Amino acid sequence: MTKVVSPAEAAARIGDGAVLTVSSSSSLGCPDKVLEAIGARFRAEGHPRGLTSIHPIAAGDMYGVKGIDHLAQDGLLARVVAGSYPSGSSNLPMPEIWKMVTEDRIPAYNVPSGILFDMHREAAARRAGVLTKVGLQTFVDPVREGCAMNSKGAASPIVARVQFGGETWLHFPNIVPDVCILRATTADENGNLTYEHEGAYLGGLEQAICVRNHGGLVIAQVARVTAKGSLRPHDVRVPGHLVDLIVVDPDQKQTCETPYDPAISGQIMRPWSSFSLAEHGVEKVIARRAAMELRAGMTANLGFGISAMVPRILLEEGHPEAVTWAIEQGAVGGMPLTGFAFGCASNADAFVPSPQQFIYFQGAGFDLSFLSFLEVDVEGNVNVSKLGKKPYLTAGCGGFVDITAHARKIVFSGWFEAGAKIALTPDGIRVAAPGKFTKMVQAVEHVTFSGARAREQGQEVLYVTERCVMRLGDGGLVATEIMPGIDPAQDIVAASAGRVSVADNATVLPLSLLAEGPMGWAP
């Protein structure tokens, strides 16, 4: 009997009330053809109904791969648990899944990606759920939102605070999935899967094991099928005894807006000269100052936004291999990519499955993390996961909470004000026109990072902006370094409504940060 079926035949095997777990990261590794077939079957037959959908990382994007939006239909989707959600420009329509969440049509949760992978491992081994300190004192904690994204989510909690061994922990009971939907490049006739054109392994193996251990259904979408016995055993990432059905989509995208780039999957190595440098401007200045925290030989984690520019700073300075980068999708080393290819890397040294990468992150094996912020408050709390007015401008927390939970050093980067006009002059930075509002707020809308918890653990935390570098002290945010040309009293203290103070011994940063060419720095 062949395992190869049409998308419609695969969708027909999913029963009402099933719990789905989907392996994806935006369009990277997204089994979109299978998700599309599930949505089409529901529109035609009214089944399957009442699904719970679990997504450790987002499924689909807002630029042509619908992903989870295929499932975002009343009656089809009953609950969603995701580490992140599709996000994009405010000029684009709100994704259907975000409408369901914000209109409180289904219970919805934003659970850190690493915890979701942990939940699969614990459910697979039939243990008692995840016991973790990741997320304490953040929105993940039941003393705040408990991961709930709306009222229906809050009414059905999925996490509890517990005491164990004299310490406070967060406990996530098991959610056992019935169906796993993953993606690879090639399947042989027995269902063995290889990932040679993929930019990451993600968590497909762990998700498949979890489902198989509970007698469920595993569906693999691939670009092609080969004869049984023709794949090298060392290349097989998911063995065929875990796979029930194979769906072929020869047109699956490698990642957002990218049909196929062999450098993303490590099949060629690009010359360093082929990578573009960071565009000159304010955000490059911020990224340059952030990069100055690096030292040769370090391993650093990297997030989306301004932080993603930091590797390009090292490239411009002539030191592209001085630091080993590690990103949550699994790439280690090389050059992390930006824009639509974020989450991928070219010239990587290795690809690690995401669940193992998150073990490394949660245990803080790396030297420092570069992350971005939407807003920061007087307690040093950071929000990256919620924007009430335009919710889909952020993907949610993703791996942010896992990464920051125990990190020894964190460098947050962002704008001091939203919409300010900043001029880069030969003498320094000048605020030509104030912004619409400060990002240094009294209290953040969502606590994705807890300043109080950071102080308890002795974490070193910096906030880098176009006006200053702030540090988290006992009294709140203190500007310890001032960008050249900035008036501390007017552009920092007054502009933040007094929420940021200036240290008496604050120093002025060098003008070289504003240089058109390399700034002459080495890690």
Automatic annotation (TrEMBL):
<dbReference type="Pfam" id="PF01144">
    <property type="entry name" value="CoA_trans"/>
</dbReference>
<dbReference type="GO" id="GO:0016740">
    <property type="term" value="F:transferase activity"/>
</dbReference>
<comment type="similarity">
    <text>Belongs to the 3-oxoacid CoA-transferase family.</text>
</comment>
<keyword id="KW-0808">Transferase</keyword>
<dbReference type="InterPro" id="IPR037171">
    <property type="entry name" value="NagB/RpiA_transferase-like"/>
</dbReference>
<dbReference type="InterPro" id="IPR004165">
    <property type="entry name" value="CoA_trans_fam_I"/>
</dbReference>
<protein>
    <recommendedName>
        <fullName>Acetate CoA-transferase YdiF</fullName>
        <ecNumber>2.8.3.8</ecNumber>
    </recommendedName>
</protein>
<comment type="function">
    <text>CoA transferase having broad substrate specificity for short-chain acyl-CoA thioesters with the activity decreasing when the length of the carboxylic acid chain exceeds four carbons.</text>
</comment>
<dbReference type="InterPro" id="IPR014388">
    <property type="entry name" value="3-oxoacid_CoA-transferase"/>
</dbReference>
